[in-house]
Amino acid sequence: MTHLLENWSKIPFAFGGAALSGAGGGYGFGEGDNPQDLLKVALERGVTLFDTAPIYGFGQSEEVLGEFQKGRRDQIRLISKSGVYWHSSKRVDMTNDPKITLKMFEESLRRLKTDYIDLYMIHWPDPKTDIRYPLEVIAKLKEQGKILEVGLCNTNSEDLKASEEVVDIRVVQSQHNIYEAPPQEVLNYIREKNLSFMGWGMFDKGILTGRVDKKREQAKDYDANDCRKNAPWWNQKDVLAKIDRLDFYKETAQKLELSLSELAVNYALSPAWSSHALVGAKRVADLEAVLDAKRVEISDELRSEIEEKCRVSPS
Fold this sequence. Notes:
There is one protein chain. By secondary structure, the chain is an alpha/beta fold. It has one domain: NADP-dependent oxidoreductase domain (TIM Barrel). It has helices spanning about 5-10, 35-45, 60-70, 100-110, 130-145, 155-165, 185-195, 235-245, 245-255, 260-270, 285-290, 300-310, and strands at about 15, 50, 75-80, 85, 90-95, 115-120, 145-155, 170-175, 195-200, 275-280. The termini are far apart.
């Protein structure tokens, strides 16, 4: 049985909308090439899945996509999310409160300038809120035709099982690179239910491209609009630990005649359960490099060896 995203997309990539955050703040990596040019190239190269979220640029990513989709709505699939909300002070609140879920969805529709969203996802689990409550809101929107399919991001097996009481989950999205993968019980569920999987963080925010090295790993090395400037997860100790474990990764890339970025692409797409990877490039050249990446087979044995030699425990 074909996965949903394989029916929606001829290539195993989706465009990652955090790259469109520009100077908006929130979760994003600063300004790059003209965002409309970037999106146009992505579509011309066969990308039809465009993933975003309100927190990317505090709405800016959705607004950019809203402009882009005019006259192209039937050519693309829009993906957005609820759950990472913010107040007027820009204080971020991780919440799946049903009222906030509905509010976020309606705001996303306005910014995206559309009357429906192809795939709508809950961005993160919220320990204060039973996942079934926001999913009831989303299920009603799906019945009204405002949402076509539903997914969960960064989820766990408990929420996946609870969701069965409310609505069909078709897609799971989680971080996936040599340093981090979804929990095994989530992977088991994906395989059992034949769900599509979309991985984010393919390059672990630059580390796996080789651009983040010991000369460029501190928060001070990034401009004010790059979330690595202030984010608590961009921890110097953790970043250095990852860089220190890259020797085998570099040796493997050389043996396979791949660049570091190409090995990251092949690794991300190698497991049978991984149907798509997000490409969060903010420059056209970087986007095209990913789409043109040389493809080789990464065996289960090699993938396991990469993980064994490269993974580190976070501090």
